[in-house]
Amino acid sequence: MKNNRFLLKVNTVIYTLIVLGIFVVVYSLLTVLPWRWDVTANKKHTLSSQTVKIVQNISKQVEITAFCQDGSPQKEKISDLLNNYTRLNKKLSLTFVDPDKQPSLTSRYKIKNYNTVVFQSGTQRKDILDHEIFFQNYGPEYQVNMEFRGESAFTNALIAVTSKGKKRLCFLVGHEEALLEDNDRDGLSGLKDILEQQNYNIKSLNLILEDIDENDILVVAAPKRTFIKKELSKLTNFFTSGGKGLFLLDAINNSGLAKWLDAWDIGIGNNIIIDTQRNYFFDASSPLPEYLPHEITDDLLKQRIPTVFFLARSIHPQKTLKESPIKITPLLQSSSGSWAESNYQSKKVQYDKDIDQKGPVVMGLAMEKPPTGNFSTKMVVFGDVDFISNKALSIQGNIDLFLNSIAWLAEEKDKIAIRPLKEETSKITLTPLRARLIYIISLFVIPGFIILMGIVVWLRRRRL
Known about the structure:
464 residues; eight-stranded mixed beta sheet; Rossmann fold; globular; Glutaredoxin; alpha/beta
């Protein structure tokens, strides 16, 4: 009997050691191998597709130097993120410097603040400061929420130090277009900040006073006044010579561009899209478009990232001859439960099969014409401008759709992707009743259940 008990104890010890050994081996392998699993809800430990593309395509050496205090939580966060970068490309090297322990090196780099990260490639240098990485967001009752924006800042820095040159975007003015300097809800000041972070040069262009450079990308943002003949002639010359442009045409406004776009096999509807099936917070005039396959939308379609349009108009390919060299690809469409409302000024909006177009209705398209000279003509046309206004930039898909369109026009394929998501703090708001239930369950119900089960087991063992 004693021998059996001894053998049982020996077996228990052996099995325990085997299990512990397995855990040690698995843990050792996980620390050595580059495998990672991100189980967070918003994948905050996973690099965005844009970052992965950009880092993998870097062909020259980039030195990253982070000036952080040893043991600080900021250093830990920065280190975890930048190590993900260096795993993707050996051209990236990462060094940490404690400003308190290495003051001479810190002075040589002219660093004035903790948690500054310096990106260098050749003669190009970009410094990312602490407030760009750890953004303080003020909530209600002056509550400060710290938002980590490291990936967005670091990826933009890599673009800045590795790009050969900056592409220039020319925003058309002179027809009461939406303005980049406008800080109101309908303005585009937020878009301007994002474009500059993405390493684009921004310029306002008046066609009456200036010509368009053949290397520029033209952006036409919701013009309200009619174009004169001279301006339309300049537009024709620019695009005939292989120009590239993005048109954001609001509903209701009639600038005369609809007739001009006819020559490029692009039709502009005089209507507003009403979608009762897929819309934003039960507003049928704010549709959630469905993506169609194209370079611009493929990542958005794959990851199911939504875009919201507001008071959008229909954009459709014109019926042309089969031998036309112009290639038109629809990018977005409304749902089958939608229609293009022609009588949008009426107080009562309803579908009229005789005059309204039944959904799905195209809301955006890409046009490409083979080159006649050195460049191919490219256009992207959307039936809305509000989706990239200040009031809508917080919707992730909106800015990705716009920037992917610009990247496609600029032929920067590594920028056609999903940008880094903002890290958000998950919050639970409890009603007094739910808070009380949690209190009772955690303090009385669960401990009471454990005690009850213990009593039942004790009574059963006594009877044996």
